[in-house]
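FAQ: What does the model actually see?

It sees only this:
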Amino acid sequence: MFKPLPTLLRVAAIAVTAFTFAQAEPIPDANKINGFAIGAQAYTFNRFTVFEAIEKTAEAGAKVIEFYPGQKLSKEEPTVKWDHNASDETFAKVVAKLAQHGIKAVNYGVVSIPTEEAEARKIFAFGKKLGLYGITTESFEAIDTIEKMVKEFDIRVGFHDHPRRPDKPSYRMWDPYFILELTKGRDERIGACADTGHWQTSGINPLWAVKTLKGRIVSSHLKDKEDFGKSHDVPYGTGVGQIGDILAELKAQGFQGNISIEYEYNWENSLPEVKKCVEFVRDWKPKP
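And it is asked to produce this:
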């Protein structure tokens, strides 16, 4: 049975102080399912609050969550936003809520990381305080600052891909070769947040992209879609996303990061589909 939230708040307040400067650790095996740190990207539940996203993640059977900046904190405090500028009080409430439901925060994004070190440091200090495995961004122009922060805070950074934009040829994050070029020679903790659904929207075979980025995949927004192009998300294993083969490839690569279910469909009632995605990973077995 979970502890009452007020007691957890007191514990969380102590934890916040104790672990502010703790070294980042790998995602514990206890928070993995079938060897994968599979959980929800809170954006899946962006029609709801942070507290509800945590509750729904737990209800889906997952044990980790990736937050995004700007989500409302709770029904009781809808004007309070959750991000790297959160007050100590808000931070303690989120830590307590995570503990109440047995969920570990593992990632944060997609967040813009400025080139100015002082502002970038706020994001990484927040991640360190929360005990994150990684941070997700598309701020390729801040690569020098990011590398410095990665070394200082020992937090990984994954560059995320949205779909290619014919109206904006300068946008290149969708291209795995661009990510390889961007991260070449950089700290090994810098790589890709592999959003397989956006690759499908771009007409890219996601399994090929995962193989191409071998050694540089920090995390994943793992999606299955009903087809390539502008189609919608479906539960793992029911679309064209080759989810089983991607899991096998990640396993072969020694991938240790988080896999976020960012389910961008059926927004008001996606929990059953998210649960099916968790169950797919739980039941997955490599081909003989």
